[in-house]
Amino acid sequence: MPISTKKSSIADATSPEAGEEICVPVRSDNDLVNARHEGRRLAESLGFSSSETTLVATAISELARNIVNYALRGEIVLRRVDRHARRGITVIARDEGPGIANVKLAMQEGYSTSGGLGLGLPGVRRIMDEFEIETEPGRGTTVTVSKWRQ
Amino acid sequence: MKELDEKDLLRELVAHLRQNRTELREDWARRITDAKLLTAMSREEIFAEATSVYNKYVEALETGTLEMLHAYARNLSERIIPRGVETHEVLGIVLLLRDVLARSLFAKYQGDFKLLNRVLDAYEPAANRVANAVAVGFVQERERIIREQQQSIRELSTPVLQVRERLLILPIIGVIDSQRARQLTEQLLRAIRANRARVVVIDITGVAAVDSSVANHLVQTVEASQLLGAAVIVTGLSPEIAQTLVRIGVNLGKVRTVGDLQGGLEEAERVLGYKVVPIAEASKPA
Amino acid sequence: MAVPILKQSPYLIATIQSALSDADLLSLRDSLTEQVGRFRSRGVIVDVTALDVLDSFASRTLRDISYMVRLRGAETVIVGIQPEVAFAMVQLGVTLKDVATALDLEEGLAYLDKKKLNSGRD
């Protein structure tokens, strides 16, 4: 599946400009691999440590899988952000799926609907520095997370 | 005369500042010395810096983009901080430059009061943006350096010791916050891999306070070490701490806990298959 | 991409590459279970050295592999979890409790050898 970027091409090895976006459509299993890979690439190019990069890729994996499992399709948007001269990465996981009926419950540890580990959202929140979720049953879900470079 | 708009005016005054750069730079360097700023640098050094800073200042005035300003401020900080320059000095020289240039504009446009006002209307906001960016940039650069130094201090203060082949000890001393816990864990995991450790003894005798957050960090460190195949022994758990752990529902599971470090080391050696005997006994025939 | 499984009697060694899809992992689970039965292996090593992310799904599947292989009478060891990956796992809250882990292939083999010895069979 083609991946679109707003300003530079994926092959561009230089560090992206602030605000530049990479959008990864998520529809199937293989897109998870893409999303993790793109997230890792962006985080590395922004100078995140190896540990931090792995955390970002892990969060992306969890969020993207939720899209595939529950919404069937959506997208992962990766963005470089700068705040007070600190660099960070923002990941937006967006879908138009069924939405989450009870967010509070979903954010509780150990909560699960499909017999697995649930949506893994509490874990994602622990891994990232900022976490925001917007969801409406029947309309879809958008999870926005960010991590700042130490 | 054609009415110049603000952009044109800015362009014109930037051209003027470029044209007269030699004389304005000297004026500025002189004022810096008179104001007893940058005392850590010699006159020659000041002059050399002044050239580069002046040119970049004018460029920043001209383009005025946030990115350019931040780059300018960062560049300035990087060159100057290592020389032991204080914040007030950095801001001081930038404000002096602003004033030197302003006076030069006064001199040029003094014949036409209305035009002078419009020139200043174009110049002042631009100059203030630069000064602001430099001040903020300097502070942020300082903060970044402090963070780095704190990181180094943390690293220095948490040695992972290899006591024996395949056995590591991590004595934790002091206060554990999330950042320190994270850094400790990363260091320990790297050491486990580098030393191919089979057993890790984590001694928390010296930990200042064990509340639920510290306990959670400890559990995470233990679990991560186990993922790398290491057996973990936690020592230095006082009865009070043990109670805290039970109370907050922390289950150390597979982790052996021993009262003191000595006991922990003996246990570790047992796990590794060593048996420590007095020399006399060891040399006795079987 | 299928995960290569090496038969090193009496064990099976599966070496995972970094770009591992969910389907690849499930297919590995099925292959290992089938091969353990077919070759009567005593142990399975899953080498995840090249895996750069071990999330909740991967951890669940590794646990499944361990359970299913045990049902066929063999032991599983996961080896090669990288420090950053281990760190991310505990932060995320996924565990491999009840699944044996070892530092690397050498340690994994030593573990299986010891288990075999202790089990007192052949």
Summarize this structure as a short list of keywords or feature phrases:
heterotrimer, B: 286 residues, alpha/beta, Globin-like, Transcription Regulator spoIIAA, five-stranded mixed β-sheet, 10% strand, elongated, C: 122 residues, 4 helices, 5 strands, 48% helix, 18% strand
List the SSEs and their pairings.
The complex is a heterotrimer of chains A (150), B (286) and C (122).
Chain A: E1 4-5, E2 21-26, H1 29-45, H2 50-71, E3 74-83, E4 86-95, H3 103-106, H4 121-127, E5 130-136, E6 140-148
Antiparallel strand pairs in A: 1-2, 2-3, 3-4, 4-6, 5-6
Helix pairs in contact in A: 1-2, 2-4
Chain B: H1 6-19, H2 21-34, H3 43-63, H4 66-80, H5 87-109, H6 113-156, E1 161-164, E2 167-174, H7 178-195, E3 199-207, H8 212-227, E4 231-235, H9 239-247, E5 256-258, H10 261-272, H11 279-282
Parallel strand pairs in B: 2-3, 3-4, 4-5
Antiparallel strand pairs in B: 1-2
Chain C: E1 5-8, E2 11-15, H1 22-39, E3 43-47, H2 56-71, E4 75-79, H3 83-92, E5 100-102, H4 105-119
Parallel strand pairs in C: 2-3, 3-4, 4-5
Antiparallel strand pairs in C: 1-2
Helix pairs in contact in C: 1-2
